[in-house]
Protein: ABC transporter
Organism: Rhizobium altiplani
Amino acid sequence: MSAIAIELEDLTVAYQRHPAVHHVTGTIAAGSLTAIAGPNGAGKSSLLKAIIGELRPSSGMIRHRLKSTDFGYLPQAANINRRFPISVLDTVLLGAWRQSGALGHIASAEWQKAHDALEAVGLGGFERRGIGSLSAGQFQRVLFARLLLQDANVILLDEPFTAIDGRTTRDLLDIVANWHGEGRTVLAVLHDFAQVRAHFPQTLLLARDVIGWGATADVMSEANLRKARAMAERWDESAGICEPAR
Ligand SMILES: Nc1ncnc2c1ncn2[C@@H]1O[C@H](COP(=O)(O)OP(=O)(O)OP(=O)(O)O)[C@@H](O)[C@H]1O
């Protein structure tokens, strides 16, 4: 049996008492590769934010023995401000702060690793470009290079391939597969069900409540997807915690 990396026990996450994630119980095995799927507003991003400690549970528990530096997190692209005047290389080097400290000295090994990471994502030569001048796909490659440098044990990706072309998606999926091969734990919020079925052995199907959690082929059944859609149609955005669905 695999070791557990993260355990969720009756986890509810709410905003101003409106639940986004409701009574979630389950485990994420160390070294597993899990997709989080579900309709818009299902609570997928909120769950990732709770796991990294950005949101506090309203009730229930998140148990793990990880330090904050063990987590690598890729937020949704829409939430990243690219107007900040910073170069591609410096953006990637932000992934090395665990080694260097927040204001610390960047060792030459880290510079080399940053260059190697940019080569690995197909952006060799882009080091001095400002991030504001990149296409969406190029910027997503930069963020993956930063994660490569960060070398985290648990990697959480929030819609990493949304609005990204097929070739870039394939390249980035290869990186995800390598992380999995290296024994890292990867959780990714995805909307493309074909991608989930093809590349992610485990799936958590969420519609605020857990619809299914386990082997992807079992969880992504037509019946479960119908149930998730039906739940989404019934959501009452003003419902309080644990009010029964109407
Ligand atoms: N900062 C916030 N303040 C208030 N409500 C929020 C906040 N962030 C999210 N919500 C609400 O929580 C619910 C879950 O949102 P969340 O972003 O986690 O869903 P999601 O499954 O990631 O959706 P999507 O697929 O559209 O990205 C939604 O009803 C959303 O409106």
Summary: The chain has one domain: 4-234.
